[in-house]
Q: What sequence folds into this?
C-alpha cells in the first residue's frame, strides 16, 4: 500500500510541476461560479451542468494525456522495473485524478449551491442535491476510466483530444430528455433539471450505478491493454 | 533441483554447483515480430551465472528487444524465458524486479527529481526499510559520483548525470541479472569504463551495443544475433585467437569462418 501511495504522490507532483493540476482544479471551481455569472443568459442549473460536464471532460483528457505521456517517456517502464505491477500505474492515475475531481467537485458544488439555491434551506434540497452530485461524480469516474483506456493505447496528444471529445460527448449526452438516467452521464442531466426532478434519489442511484458499471468495464479494459503493451 | 543465484553460499561454493553450471538467463524458442518484421525468430540462449555477455545483432533492434523482453518491458509472442531460475508469471512483477535490472539508452525517471529523490523513491518502491534507506542512498550517490549534485533536479545536471542516476537506481536492489542497452553513452570513456566494471562474481551482465569495441574489458563472452537467431555464442578469447577486432564486422567474419 505504501508503494501505491508513493506512486500516487509522484503522479500528483508530476501534475503540479507540469502545470496541469491548477487547471484541473480551476475549471471545476469556475464551473461553480458560472451559474451566477450567467444567470441572465441561461437557467443556472443548466449552466452549471454544462460547465461541470466540460470541466470533467477536460480533467479526463488531462488524465488520459498523463498516462500516455508516462508510457511514451519511459516512466511507466521505470516503475515497472521497480517491481510495480502495471495495473498500479493505471490505478494511481485514476486515484490521483479522482481525488482532484472529488476535491474540485465539492468546492464547485458549494459555490453553485449558494448561487442556485440560496433561497432554500439545506434541509429541503440538500439530500437530493448531494445525490445528484454523487451521480455526477460517478459519471466523472466513468469518463476518467475511459480516458485512461485511451491513454493506454494512443500517443499523448491524440489521447487528450479523443478523451476530451468522447468524455464531453458522454457527459453532455446525459442532458438528453429520454433515457438519460440509463446513460453514464445521467448525473449531468439530473443536475440540469434540479430541483424539479420527480424522483431525485432513485434517479441518482440509477445514474450512479450505470456510471460505476461503465467505469469498472473501461478500467478493466485499460488494465488488460497496459498489461500487454510494450513499455 | 534448479541451482540459481539464490542458492545458499555453502552450496554455491561446492564443486557440485560448479559442475551444474547454473544459468542466470535461459531463453528457449523466443519469438517476437515488430511491425511485421521477425526481430526474434526463435532465440535459444543460455547465459551462465557471472557471465559478462555482449549482445550484438543485425538488425540492431533485435538485441535491444531481447533485453526489453528479459526485463519484462516487452512480451515475447512465444518461447520460454527464465531469469535466475524463475519465469515472470512465477516470480510476479515484484519478484522479477528484485532479480533483474535494466538500464536503457534513455534515462527515464522524472527529470524534476533530484538524484537523491530518485534513489529514495526507487528504494521505497523496492521495499527497502525506512531505517536503511538513507544509508543505502548515500552510499549509492558516493559510488556513482553523484554526491555533488544530489539535491539538484536531474534536468539541471545534464544527460551524463541522468544516466549515472539510471545506473545507480538499477544497482540499488543488488540485482542478480543486469541488462544494459547502450548504457552511459553520455559519459566520457574513462568514467563509463569505471562505472560499468560492476563487482560481484555472481552478478550476470548482458550489454547490448552497436559499438562493441567500447565494451572491451567489460565483457568476457559475446552473442551474435543474425536475423533473429543466435548465430554465435562464444568467449571473447575466440575472437582474439583469430586476430579479429571486437566490432560487428569482426564478429561477423568469425561467424563466416565457423559452420552453423
A:
Amino acid at each position: 500500500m505504501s508503494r501505491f501511495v508513493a506512486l500516487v504522490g509522484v503522479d500528483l507532483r508530476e501534475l503540479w510541476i507540469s502545470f496541469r493540476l491548477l487547471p484541473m482544479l480551476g475549471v471545476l471551481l469556475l464551473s461553480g461560479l458560472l451559474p451566477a455569472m450567467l444567470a441572465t443568459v441561461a437557467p443556472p442549473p443548466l449552466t452549471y451542468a454544462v460547465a461541470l460536464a466540460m470541466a470533467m471532460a477536460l480533467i479526463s483528457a488531462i488524465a488520459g494525456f498523463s498516462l500516455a505521456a508516462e508510457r511514451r517517456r519511459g516512466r511507466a517502464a521505470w516503475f515497472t522495473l521497480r517491481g510495480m505491477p502495471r495495473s498500479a500505474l493505471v490505478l494511481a492515475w485514476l486515484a490521483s485524478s479522482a481525488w482532484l475531481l472529488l476535491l474540485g467537485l465539492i468546492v464547485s458544488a458549494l459555490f453553485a449551491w449558494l448561487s442556485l439555491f440560496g433561497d432554500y434551506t439545506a434541509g429541503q434540497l440538500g439530500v437530493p442535491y448531494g445525490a445528484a452530485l454523487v451521480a455526477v461524480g460517478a459519471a466523472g469516474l466513468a469518463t476518467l476510466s475511459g480516458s485512461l483506456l485511451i491513454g493506454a493505447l494512443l500517443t499523448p496528444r491524440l489521447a487528450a483530444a479523443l478523451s476530451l471529445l468522447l468524455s464531453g460527448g458522454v457527459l453532455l449526452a446525459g442532458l438528453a430528455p429520454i433515457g438519460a438516467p440509463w446513460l453514464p452521464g445521467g448525473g449531468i442531466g439530473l443536475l440540469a433539471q434540479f430541483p424539479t426532478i420527480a424522483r431525485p434519489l432513485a434517479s441518482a442511484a440509477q445514474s450512479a450505478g450505470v456510471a460505476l458499471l461503465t467505469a469498472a468495464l473501461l478500467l478493466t479494459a485499460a488494465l488488460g491493454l497496459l498489461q500487454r503493451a510494450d513499455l | 533441483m534448479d541451482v540459481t543465484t539464490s542458492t545458499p553460499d555453502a552450496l554455491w561454493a561446492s564443486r557440485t554447483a560448479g559442475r551444474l553450471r547454473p544459468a542466470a538467463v535461459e531463453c528457449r524458442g523466443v519469438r517476437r515480430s515488430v511491425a511485421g518484421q521477425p526481430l526474434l525468430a526463435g532465440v535459444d540462449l543460455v547465459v551462465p551465472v557471472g557471465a559478462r555477455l555482449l549482445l550484438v545483432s543485425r538488425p540492431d533492434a533485435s538485441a535491444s528487444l531481447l533485453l526489453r523482453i528479459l526485463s519484462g518491458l516487452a512480451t515475447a509472442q512465444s518461447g520460454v524465458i527464465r531469469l535466475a531460475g524463475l519465469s515472470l508469471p512465477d516470480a510476479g512483477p515484484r519478484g522479477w524486479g528484485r532479480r533483474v535490472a535494466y538500464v536503457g539508452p534513455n534515462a527515464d525517471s522524472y527529470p524534476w527529481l533530484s538524484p537523491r529523490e530518485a534513489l529514495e523513491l526507487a528504494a521505497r518502491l523496492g521495499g527497502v526499510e525506512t531505517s536503511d534507506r538513507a544509508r543505502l542512498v548515500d552510499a549509492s550517490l558516493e559510488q556513482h559520483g553523484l554526491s555533488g549534485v544530489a539535491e539538484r533536479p536531474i534536468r539541471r545536471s545534464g544527460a551524463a548525470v541522468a544516466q549515472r542516476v539510471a545506473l545507480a537506481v538499477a544497482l540499488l536492489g543488488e540485482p542478480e541479472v543486469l541488462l544494459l542497452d547502450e548504457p552511459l553513452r553520455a559519459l566520457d570513456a574513462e568514467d563509463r569504463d569505471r562505472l560499468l566494471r560492476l563487482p560481484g562474481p555472481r552478478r550476470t551482465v548482458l550489454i547490448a551495443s552497436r559499438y562493441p569495441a567500447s565494451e572491451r574489458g567489460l565483457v568476457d563472452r559475446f552473442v551474435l544475433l543474425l536475423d533473429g537467431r543466435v548465430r554465435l555464442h562464444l568467449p571473447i578469447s575466440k575472437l582474439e585467437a583469430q586476430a579479429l577486432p571486437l566490432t560487428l564486422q569482426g564478429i561477423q567474419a568469425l561467424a563466416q569462418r565457423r559452420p552453423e
Q: What stands out?
A: Residues 86-116 of chain A form the longest helix (31 residues). The radius of gyration of chain A is 18 Å.
